[in-house]
Amino acid sequence: xxxxxxxxxxxxxxxxxxxxxxxxxxxxxxxxxxxxxxxxxxxxxxxxxxxxxxxxxxxxxxxxxxxxxxxxxxxxxxxxxxxxxxxxxxxxxxxxxxxxxxxxxxxxxxxxxxxxxxxxxxxxxxxxxxxxxxxxxxxxxxxxxxxxxxxxxxxxxxxxxxxxxxxxxxxxxxxxxxxxxxxxxxxxxxxxxxxxxxxxxxxxxxxxxxxxxxxxxxxxxxxxxxxxxxxxxxxxxxxxxxxxxxxxxxxxxxxxxxxxxxxxxxxxxxxxxxxxxxxxxxxxxxxxxxxxxxxxxxxxxxxxxxxxxxxxxxxxxxxxxxxxxxxxxxxxxxxxxxxxxxxxxxxxxxxxxxxxxxxxxxxxxxxxxxxxxxxxxxxxxxxxxxxxxxxxxxxxxxxxxxxxxxxxxxxxxxxxxxxxxxxxxxxxxxxxxxxxxxxxxxxxxxxxxxxxxxxxxxxxxxxxxxxxxxxxxxxxxxxxxxxxxxxxxxxxxxxxxxxxxxxxxxxxxxxxxxxxxxxxxxxxxxxxxxxxxxxxxxxxxxxxxxxxxxxxxxxxxxxxxxxxxxxxxxxxxxxxxxxxxxxxxxxxxxxxxxxxxxxxxxxxxxxxxxxxxxxxxxxxxxxxxxxxxxxxxxxxxxxxxxxxxxxxxxxxxxxxxxxxxxxxxxxxxxxxxxxxxxxxxxxxxxxxxxxxxxxxxxxxxxxxxxxxxxxxxxxxxxx
Length: 719
Ligand code: 3H9
Fold this sequence. Notes:
Elements: E1 2-7, E2 11-16, H1 26-41, E3 47-52, H2 75-84, E4 89-93, E5 96-98, H3 100-107, E6 110-114, E7 118-120, H4 134-142, H5 144-153, E8 157-158, H6 159-165, E9 170-172, H7 176-187, H8 208-222, H9 228-241, H10 244-259, H11 262-277, E10 299-302, H12 306-316, E11 322-325, H13 329-350, E12 359-362, E13 373-376, H14 382-395, E14 401-404, H15 411-416, E15 424-429, E16 438-443, H16 449-461, E17 465-470, H17 477-494, H18 498-508, H19 514-521, H20 523-532, E18 548-549, E19 552-553, H21 557-563, E20 576-577, E21 587-588, H22 590-602, H23 612-632, H24 639-649, H25 659-666, H26 668-681, H27 692-699
Helix pairs in contact: 2-3, 4-5, 4-9, 5-8, 5-9, 8-9, 9-10, 11-24, 12-13, 17-23, 18-23, 23-25, 23-26, 25-26
This protein binds (S)-3-Hydroxyhexanoyl-CoA.
Organism: Culter alburnus (Topmouth culter)
EC number: 1.1.1.35, 4.2.1.17, 5.3.3.8
Protein name: Peroxisomal bifunctional enzyme
């Protein structure tokens, strides 16, 4: 786990060997302890270089070990020993030095980084803090403001920025290990005292209190209810105000408050869930690691509305030539200007030149005959989409993949009108598509494994977190959204206001409550879907809309809001009122209040006081309950996939882990009891009836979320 060699006759080269990221597992810590002891005690050795195997210095502590008891040598004394040694130690940083990996580098007397390396203290993103001296040494090295920013955000910096900040001593384009060995030989004669960061005084800005206060307020505003960044501020304050020996104790106390917290468990779960989500398997047995994706050298996007524009930008900025198609000249021109503007702004932000030459705009589908892949992003109308797919089937060469960006329509029905159903798949982007990281890859029953692999790999190339899901109305994300937003609407009927519901959800940690989010997305989208599915339409009496449709309770309020032309932010009015069309500053609207009051009196509903707890339970337990059904139906392969979809597509607070993890943290027994309670009170709402899988898991003793899969016996997986 740590290899030892003598190079250049007097330099001990210690190589961490724990692929893939050389995490500091107990065996690696043990290896470092043994090899350092050998290097320090061998009189032939005059200097030490520490590097990592396979071009990666170290990805930090082994996060998988956090769940169990500490085994092997603890990190802090081990690092203190390296720093205190009388022989110069040089870190040769290639790839990454993150978390404990950077803390290891900080106890080395010198740091050489390869120009492609990335460094950082991302512990805060895992709900903890850099507790191997990171919060005490980094401020001593680079000062409070810069250290505070890096530690509270977990941001990775490039080698060049690390050099500017003073984190590393040299950046090289050559082999960092070889450069470090030469550097170590030159350092032999130099005194080490000034290189031991723990012995330095932290350079302190005069306005320390004001700075810490400002950062605290910023965190409280941005990361409501999240503990770790606040603990990081306190640890950095200790670095500024205490000697190292006391500061390190404070760091350790603060770590103890975080380490076993629910937030840390949730955030670490998210880390692994995100990585698990890419590992898909199909009922045929084909899976992510045995199916080769096709190379995509060119693509087309059909429809230059909000979604189509974002998709075109996402493709072009990763170097894929895109042909964008619209149905009339005016729409094409508007779309062209928007896409070019978005691409230019994006390139400016990233400091690169905009790849405008990759874009082509056309009115003719005939121009798509040679592309490798087409993404259809026209209106959410099955008849229209079918006609597009029929046409594509005629014009595109037989090997072209045909993808739809539908947010919930039947992908297999579209496949059915083509001559190549095996090459048809859903690529459900989230708005705005060039910003949102989530991609639901919707596998129809006839999508081939190569098609799935290609869509997943294209998603990755575009920087998306891609999750393979099965084909059913709404797929995973929007199918679950229905019971969640239905509960919010029923709560409106019963006496709540949009702002009260949104506040409860935002206090829980959602980036936006359900009504503010709907206003942003556009209320007409859901209205169109409801019309398409026959839930509403011209047959409904607008004066007296029925509250029972298709065999279940129905709340007509969202339709009534749309009937008034209130489509959300874009029209300046929705659940809230905005300064102007396109405005973002949501204000409660007395007209909505009137609408709710009139509605309640028309149907004889006596409004009651509704608590935040009821709002959270009804919305979130209904959400998770549908998640259990989705698992039962084989539409998602595991709870992690559902959670990743909600984290990246729906603003679910990461420190709560996602709806399924949250349900497990609340306790499945409690979730079951509360659902039973609410279902008894609302027997006409089937979504509140606890799902058989939830009941089954409770009967099995409520296993942890990672074990649910063993209990899911899907009749037939759709994945
Ligand atoms: C810490 O250091 C605490 C200290 O302050 C000490 C306190 C006392 N542990 O992301 P990838 C796995 S906390 C265990 O797909 P990439 C990962 O799960 C730690 N496993 O690769 C995956 O496994 P699998 C602070 C880890 O190239 C595989 O490695 N450090 C760890 O896209 C490949 O990962 C961090 O927060 C780990 N530390 O990105 C850094 N890291 O193949 C966390 C990775 O089974 N790591 N794995 O799915 C990362 O950010 C990225 O993994 C990294 C590589 C950028 C390193």
